[in-house]
Design a protein that fits this description.
mainly alpha, elongated, transmembrane helix, membrane, DUF202, YidH family protein, transmembrane
Length: 126
Amino acid sequence: MIPHFSDLSANERTYLAWIRTAVSLMGFGFLIERFDVFLVYTTRGAVLDSGLHLRASEWLGLGMILLGAVLILLATRSFYRNARLIRAETESAYHGAAVERVLTALLVALALFLVAYVGYQLTNLH
């Protein structure tokens, strides 16, 4: 039997959840980066403020893709650190909520930006 198998398995499941989250962020970033195609299609060619519109979606999409890549690196570091701590014979304190807090703040900021961005685009279609 593998010592601490249930703890190591839980660590691996957590790691895979972070990887799924990162891949979702990168996919959503790609979708946002291409959001201009959707808006042009739904407005049937209405004239949009293309300078602001294209730049905002491109930068936000690129930022989400980079955030996903950084999240993969942080999750991998955390996975190996936790695996090492699980295998260690000594007890240590848990200290790992900072990444979750930063990610939550970034996702709330993203949601607020998207609400404002889509609202602005919809009100300027006239």
